[in-house]
Amino acid sequence: MAKPKLLIPRKLTDAVQARAARDYDVVLNEDDHVFSKDELIAKSSEADAVLPCHSEHFSAEVIAALPDRVKIIANHSVGTDHVDLEAAKAKGIVVTNTPDVLSDATAEIAILCMLGAARRGAEGDAMVRAGAWDFWSPAFMVGRQVTGKRFGVVGMGRVGQVTAERARGFGMEVHYHNRRRLPDHLEKGATFHETLESLLAVSDVLSLHCPSTPESAGMINARTLALLPAGAILVNTARGALVDEDDLIAALKSGQLFAAGLDVFQTEPGGNPELAKLSNTFLLPHIGSATDQTRDAMGFRALDNLDAFFAGQPPKDRVA
Ligand code: DGY
């Protein structure tokens, strides 16, 4: 029997591409360029399945343009905000994601963002690199200590839980807001807040781990930032759309926030040049899951979902 044709629009690890080539008739994107909308439609239309990353936008328009041949979009990401799930459902296209496997790597980046923001990591690094470090005193480059402070988690899913666990390693007191309260063995003594507002009031560090949806868009804005304790730190390793960046900039300038550590932005790639001008930001280019180990695991998880689908089984991580 002919192997199903699989489009892989971005460069994945050698191990993932080798396994994909063993089991599928793969179409690769050798130079790893980002497909235009038309190219994404044209290339996907010749495949039975697509294994995209969050950089490929399967909007309602793109999905509507796909022929019936395309049966499954097996994402190489836990986030699925780049896929219009309702449009996929309506067209009978199965959609999967890659939960669990990137929680450790993303939690590491969240902690890096927290510490980088709290201890002025970007400012110090830039100063030493520029040869501009010409002074030292006990009053120099003083930051915020996180040990013993309150760590607020918005979205206590897998990544939120692992990040909370790492924060506990700094003696931080964990608070969280989630759609549902977690059972004791997952909550591990953290304090549940039924409302975001209640969580904000006690978050010396606020870390975002919820999905990006139309409801969560701009949830961090002038109103909600004002509810944080003065001098709080914002960490975002989830999605840029959760934060109103103009309001964030105003809060960073006014001192309402001490600093922000961000791995995600409203505009990607690129980020926000106004945030980059501020000395109290620690900024990374969406690399939460970018370790070789995790990239392998994400690719294998996406392939597991494809294998199940083409074997006539329900894929484990079906989201639509
Ligand atoms: C994810 O998996 O959602 C990460 O942001 C990388 O795409």
How does this structure look, described?
With 320 residues, this protein is α/β, with parallel strands linked by helices. It is built from 13 helices and twelve strands. A seven-stranded parallel β-sheet has the order 8-7-6-9-10-11-12. Strands 2-1-3-4-5 form a five-stranded parallel β-sheet. It is globular, with a radius of gyration of 21 Å. The model has no long low-confidence stretch (mean pLDDT 98). It binds (2R)-2,3-dihydroxypropanoic acid.
Q: Which ions and ligands are bound to the chains? A: (2R)-2,3-dihydroxypropanoic acid
Q: Tally the helices: what do you get?
A: 13
| Largest sheet report | 7 strands, parallel
Strand order of the largest sheet: 8-7-6-9-10-11-12
Could you give the order of the helices and strands? EHEHEHEHEHHEHEHEHEHEHEHEH
Estimated structural class: alpha/beta
Judging from the principal axes of the Cα atoms, what is the shape?
Answer: globular
Give average pLDDT, whole number. Answer: 98
| DSSP strand count | 12
Helix content class: 25-40%
| Cα-to-Cα separation, first versus last residue | 27 Å
Poorly predicted regions: none
Which strand-content bin applies to the residues? Answer: 5-15%
Measured on Cα atoms, how large is the radius of gyration?
21 Å
